[in-house]
Fold this protein.
Amino acid sequence: MSETILTNDIKQSATLKEFSSLAYLGLAGLALLFLLLGLGWQWPGASRWLLQSSLFWILICYLTHGRLDLNRPDEQSPLYDRLGWGNRLTLLRGWLVATVGGFLFQAWPDGPLISWLPGMLYFAAAMLDRVDGFVARRSNHSSLLGIELDTLSDALGLAIASLLAFGYGQIHVSYLLMGMAYYLYQGGIHWRRWRRLPVYPLPPAMHRRAWAGFQMGFLVVALWPLFHPPLTALAGFAFMTPVLLGFGVDWLIVSGRLDRDAPGVQRRFQRLTDLSQSVLQPALRLAIPLCLAVSIAQTGELMAGSTVAWFGAVLLGGFVLTSTMIVLGIAGRYFCLLLVGLLGWYYNNHPLQAIDYVLFCALVWSMLLGTGRFSLWLEDDRWLNRYDGA
């Protein structure tokens, strides 16, 4: 036993040394980016960015330091003697989130390139969300620490990006509830434990991971100077509604108001699942082309005011292709995403009509829920729900 404790102490010391080096390297990276921002933007704004991003990075390092004893595959296994590439990439994701936090409470950087920087930094962080777990599994270095850091980076990133998008005027204030949902949920759990109330286990669900990824994707686009309200505000409402409902159901389970293991509750959940897959999701697929046709008919032309004739032809072809694939359920989520992009282009030249609100919500909810029964090819569902590298 004493030999095992000594070995773990040695491994923890080595891990702490590596982590400290990465923490200081992160501060050096922030200093370098500060110099580049000062030269390409403005020194007062860059100085404020450096202060804020450094505080966020210090917070991430502090929270990581307190979890280094979780650098093991499970609670019964010995510690790893190194962080591993998966955890290093997750720390890089946290560093990128900190750089996005540096832009909070300032005007959107002005310039053809620098205006894209906040969104591109968050885009890089969102892409690493898929990569770090893959690397950890392929290198046989999955750890409890990685799970904790992944959740930490996701939650902090969503909170910062949603607050930044609101500061830029891209989303409605109600979307901030989405950014804070994880912290409100965890705060409720801590409150119950403080009151010595029971906290019940939450059954695993694959949709939580996929929905978090969609929120990141939406916020990436909202932070790009490409689309603006009311389209981004509408998209925010559509993306957050199912997720907040999901958080509400999860809270009912962990607080004991809903016994997920009770046979009667399981039957009701199964009926709801069957109803969604057999009725709601196919109905959304049919609503999309119908709403799109009504929208185009009300407008009268595809590209109002455009002098480039092929714009209309490309849009029409894209609308027909994506709508057909969505109705047939052939990689429906992929084609919903493509149609969202085409509609963003389309709405740059047309004001949103009432039917467009229905259309956009149907598209986003089809992406989040899937195309359901009677779909011809569900490879998109399998890709979203699998763990790469497992």
Observations:
- The mean pLDDT is 91.
